[in-house]
Design goal:
CATH superfamily: Class II aldolase/adducin N-terminal domain
Oligomer: single chain
Strand order of the largest sheet: 3-2-1-4-7-6-5
CATH topology: L-fuculose-1-phosphate Aldolase
CATH architecture: 3-Layer(aba) Sandwich
Number of strands: 7
Order of helices and strands: HEEEHEHHEHEEHHH
Length: 245
């Protein structure tokens, strides 16, 4: 059913899948994005099991209930790790309206370092200053127990990203546009940091006060995330992509 779900929301999420694949930030038919569609944040859209990001259309998205114990018995049941991780977050973190999890290259490299924090090396990284946490206790694939453990790390509404140690990255937002923009910039910031480390040269970090100022400026930047997603959707439409079908 599609109670109170707009076609725009489905199209936004489908576009985010398509562009994530274009950027090479997806992995095989793994990784998942979800979007809450009710006021309580417990009913949500998510990608179907085994579907490549580059082929997802608006109508393909599953609608799940985080409180439904029979979800994995559905004929169209989601991937069990999608249910384990995203179901747990939508159940425990109503502020996390949109949840995006990937194993993108540079964010995953960061997640494999002994210190997986993203330091305020540049303007992009400053977006996440004091607003991300690191999970240093990877316990296996994100089935229900592991998903619940990860969800507990996202209980603070001020946290917008989780570096999943030895695993990948997860970002949240109030909208698809906000979450996707954060996902994009986290990967860019992680790439800059990893490449900077590779030079072997001393790094010039932003002072904490400046990093905090920039983080607040990013949060207040008028319609930046919305404009970013709007333009990506326009490119897809110009190319004749069927993501909104």
């Amino acid at each position: 059913m599609r109670d109170n779900i707009t076609e725009v929301a489905r199209g936004d999420l489908a576009a985010a899948f398509r562009w994530t694949a274009r950027l090479g930030m997806h992995e095989s038919v793994a990784n998942h994005f979800s979007l809450a569609v009710d006021a309580a944040g417990r009913r949500f859209l998510i990608n179907p099991n085994g579907r490549h990001f580059s082929r997802i259309r608006a109508r393909d998205l599953l609608e799940l209930d985080a409180d439904d114990p029979g979800t994995m018995n559905r004929p169209d049941a989601p991937d069990p790790t999608a249910w384990g991780l995203h179901g747990a977050i939508h159940r425990a973190c109503p502020h996390a309206r949109c949840v995006m999890h990937v194993h993108s290259t540079h964010a995953t490299v960061l997640a494999c370092l002994a210190d997986s924090r993203l330091p305020p090396l540049d303007q992009n990284a400053a977006m996440f200053f004091g607003r991300h946490v690191v999970d240093s206790h990877y316990g296996g694939m994100a089935f229900e127990d592991e998903g619940a453990r990860c969800a507990a790390l996202m209980s603070d509404p001020g946290i917008i990203a989780l570096v999943m140690g030895n695993h990948g990255v997860l970002v949240v937002g109030e909208t698809v546009a906000e979450a996707f923009n954060r996902l994009y910039y986290f990967e860019r910031a992680a790439e800059t940091y990893i490449r900077a480390l590779q030079t072997g040269q001393p790094l010039r970090m932003l002072p904490d006060a400046v990093a905090e100022k920039v983080a607040r400026e990013w949060a207040a930047y008028p319609e930046f995330a919305e404009n970013h997603l709007r333009e990506l959707k326009a490119i897809l439409r110009d190319e004749g992509a069927d993501f909104e079908d």
